[in-house]
Design a protein that fits this description.
Length: about 130
């Protein structure tokens, strides 16, 4: 299968976007880390940001509370692929990137992931 190459933003965090509600357009900026690659790399970073936005999955106390974040990721991905139907989604590639990105966040913030395990998060994504 041929993978489309796109210009990835690189450091894809939710604060790096502006929404123009008058034209219903979303603009990304802060492109110092941009590179040509797989579109799923940026999607995984966005999903990582959704998981980590306050309250992040690492601050949530109850084991079932992350489900609303998983549901948000599913809604985001479904809408993305409805709009960009020409792009192929690989769950395995996405899962690998998401786990790598979560590990970067854990390391950068010197977090203890506690009872929230990446395997549980990925299982929840496939269950919804």
């Amino acid at each position: 299968m041929h993978t489309k190459l796109i210009l990835n933003k690189g450091d894809t965090r939710l604060r790096d976007f502006i929404i123009d509600f008058s034209s219903d357009k979303l603009y990304g900026f802060d492109f110092e880390d941009s590179y040509e690659g797989n579109h799923i790399d940026d999607l995984a970073w966005i999903c990582c940001a959704l998981l980590d936005t306050n309250p992040g999955v690492f601050e949530i106390i109850e084991p079932n509370q992350p489900k609303h974040k998983i549901e948000l990721i599913n809604i985001f991905l479904k809408n993305y692929y409805q709009i960009n139907s020409g792009f192929h989604f690989s769950f395995n590639y996405f899962a690998e990137r998401l786990v790598e990105d979560l590990n970067i966040v854990i390391k950068r913030r010197d977090l203890d992931p506690g009872f929230i395990r990446k395997n549980t998060i990925l299982k929840n994504i496939t269950d919804i």
